[in-house]
Amino acid sequence: MNVDIKIKDNFLPKELFEKVVKQSTTLEYSSKAIVSGYGDEKQHVFLSNLIKKNGNLIKEIEKSIKKHFNLEIENLHVAAFTCVSTKKATPHTDASLYPNEKHMIIYLHGDSNLNSGTGFYNLTDENVYDLNTAVGFFPNRAVIFNADECWHSPLIYTALDNSPRFSIIVWFQPKK
């Protein structure tokens, strides 16, 4: 795996971040909105609530992507609030719709221990994964990576309790 991960703390403006955190804990989450995998191997990796593609929140997120990562969105694949509380590591790659698609996680609310972040793995053998890089959870931290080459998993499985991690995911094709 060629790890190309970019991290930015204090990603969203403070007022917007606080508003989005409150909103994230009051939403209804479904396991049917986003499905990971293909064909008969489809599996639900997280609970989600989709974000309107042309809404103000996406416009604000795009401003922050441009400001902090010097990228613009050409095509938006999906954006959603997510709620994860899995106790088992689930290394996976996400479906990508566009060439050179980027996937981004914005951590909103949860336990700030390293155990609530994201692990990036090397696939060493069939169904054998080696943790390559761990990114810790920090409120308002954005993590961006290439969709087609990053095996990753929430790291909540080592947390001491079942507290969920609330995040926003944005999958997009950047402008060239």
Describe the structure.
The protein is mostly beta strands. It has a single domain (5-174), classed as q2cbj1_9rhob like domain (Jelly Rolls). It is 14% helix and 36% strand. The protein contains two helices and nine strands, in the order E-H-E-H-E-E-E-E-E-E-E. It has helices at 14-24, 56-69; strands at 5-8, 47-50, 73-84, 102-109, 118-125, 128-135, 142-146, 151-154, 165-174. The strands form two sheets. It has a six-stranded antiparallel beta sheet. Strands 6-5-8 form a three-stranded antiparallel beta sheet, with no helix packed on it. A hairpin with a 2-residue loop joins strand 5 (118-125) and strand 6 (128-135). The longest helix is centred in the middle third of the chain and has 14 residues, at 56-69.
Helical residue percent band? 10-25%
Discrete helix count: 2
Average pLDDT reading: 85
Strand order within the widest sheet?
A: 1-7-4-9-3-2
Residue stretches low in confidence (pLDDT < 50, at least 5 long) are none
Can you tell me the CATH topology? Answer: Jelly Rolls
What Rg, in angstroms, do the CA atoms define?
15 Å
**How many domains is the backbone divided into?**
1
Which structural class do you get from the secondary structure elements? mainly beta
β-strand number:
9
> CATH homologous superfamily, by name?
q2cbj1_9rhob like domain
Order of helices and strands: EHEHEEEEEEE
Q: From the 3D coordinates, which CATH architecture would you assign?
A: Sandwich
Largest sheet: 6 strands, antiparallel
Name of the CATH first level: Mainly Beta
Q: What proportion strand? A: 35-45%
The N- to C-terminal Cα distance equals: 23 Å
Overall 3D geometry?
globular
